[in-house]
Amino acid sequence: MTTTKSPEVMQGSSHATSNNALDELNKMFFVEEKLTETFKIMCMCKTSYENDTLTTVVTQLCTSDVQIKFTEQGYVPFHNHPLLVIPYMYMTKEQIRGIKKIVDDLSRQQVTFRASSMMGGGASITCSRAPARIIDPVNVLFTLYHILSQHCKQINNPSLIYNTIVQRLACNVDLSRACITQARNKIKSHLQKSREVSLECV
User: Fold this and answer.
1) Its pTM surpasses 0.70
2) Which of 9, 173, 174, 179 has the most CB atoms around it within 10 Å of its CB?
């Protein structure tokens, strides 16, 4: 005997599959262990339209909802900024396999996708599931400081650049004081541990 699923059951199943897809995308690109590499790739693959890529990337990571959208070039995480792309060519094999599995799972659950042409040529598919806020802004700010300290070694005080960017963010977007304080405390703890390790190695 064949059992036909009701529209309500199918809708609930599709919604759960979409949530799982967002969870997987978060694990692949936006958890603390992956965020540094994602951050670097987004900054490296900037477009000619961006005047301040670093601030743009930080802003989107801190404040934007994440969507399920793939183009011929890569994964487009932010609905509000379609020019920020994580290209397939910079992804790991594990990330590529993960994206293929997400698309397969969503298609099997009959999740609705919207196909559209892109202004610069090519096509994209976007899951109908509404984007969701899944990135921890505290981790984003901590990652920003880490990248500045690693790649701005010619500057004696990377904290100056960090504070300038964070102040700009606080003035222009909805970034809570609590997030900024938590990130600052996390940075202080990291620096303290680094100093202790350095002393142990002497």
Assistant:
1) yes
2) 179
